[in-house]
Design a protein that fits this description.
Layout (H helix, E strand, L loop, with lengths): L10 E3 L9 H10 L17 H11 L5 E7 L5 E9 L2 E9 L7 E7 L1
Parallel strand pairs: 1-2
Antiparallel strand pairs: 2-3, 3-4, 4-5
Length: about 110
Amino acid sequence: MLINGYEEGPLVAGEPLLARPGFWSNHLMALGGTGTGAERAVPEWFGDDGADTDALTEILFDPERWPVFRVPAADGTGVVVIYRNLVGDYAIDHLLTRQDRSRARRRACSLT
């Protein structure tokens, strides 16, 4: 899999991970961060078991495999979500795609 700007990353298709127990709690907790003064999120808030979430964390944040998820919209736009797993610089990148453009545009980066 090749995505401009990510040629050096070991990108892999992430869609099969979406149905795995622990995916959504991992993803949502990573987007929300730890916050300050707030109660820390736990997998059970999202209906997941902590052990499942921990097991999937090892897959989602593996520096040797960067899961990529394509989320198309009906109008031809879409988002590509990339778990950019650089050692010491983990992030979840969101790239906007459009049919009338040959390149995706980086729209957001969530630190984990």
